[in-house]
Amino acid sequence: MFRSHYDRHITHVREAVMRMGQLVDQAIVRASKSLASGDTLMAKWVIDDDVQIDEAERDLEERVMTLLATQQPIVARDLRLMNVTLAIGWELERIGDYASGVARCTGRLSGQSYEHLLGDTISAMSQRSQQMVQTSLESFIQLDIALARSLGDADDQIDEWRRQHTTELMSIAQTNPEHVVVVIELLEVLHFFERMADRATNIGERVIYLVTNTTEAINE
Predict the structure, then answer these.
(1) How far apart, in Å, are the Cα atoms of 153 and each of 121, 127, 128?
(2) Residues of the domain holding 151
(3) What is the CATH number of the domain that holds 79?
(4) Distance, CA of 53 to CA of 175 (rounded, Å)
(5) How many domains does the chain contain in total?
(6) Helix 115-142 and helix 151-175: axis angle, to 10°?
(7) pLDDT confidence of 77, banded at 50, 70, 90?
(8) Which of 60, 102, 112, 215 is most buried per CB count within 10 Å?
(9) Any residues with CB less than 8 A from the CB of 115 and at least 6 apart, and which?
């Protein structure tokens, strides 16, 4: 009876993680769309809704803390699960901040002509970073370390895309000084998508730790 009650609480905690993940996924999609279309209203929507992600993180933390305080004794495996769950919440909250950062860049680019400078790279980075967040959460729900490890290659690809597009943008700024302001904002966008990927990779490493009780860097 005790374990059944405890397991229900664990399920609720996992569901809280997924709800938070859905909010973050939505933020990435909307931030990316606002950038691609120059839609400042959608960008503001992303920024305003970031408070929901913050609230979801606090709710998750409260659920975990309540479980730790009221469900005793807790075995080492479950304690590891709670610690990893808190860490995943923190990573998701930061990803939400990065999505908000992309939206803020869109706002600052309002009135500027920049669509021709986006290229395919930023779109690819936004899609891949979103996929990585989804994959990291799926690996957590399924406790799938192979899925978690697959994030390493995706992160490498995003790092390479950022290096390539950074070089391209810097070249544009040097030969076309009128684009400097826009280039600065787009370089910031590249940074935000790269950091989303890094955070998703962190979640994957947490999953590996949860399953194996060993630390493993999946992208060195």
Answers:
(1) 17, 15, 11
(2) 2-212
(3) 1.20.58.220
(4) 41
(5) 1
(6) 170
(7) confident
(8) 102
(9) 36, 38
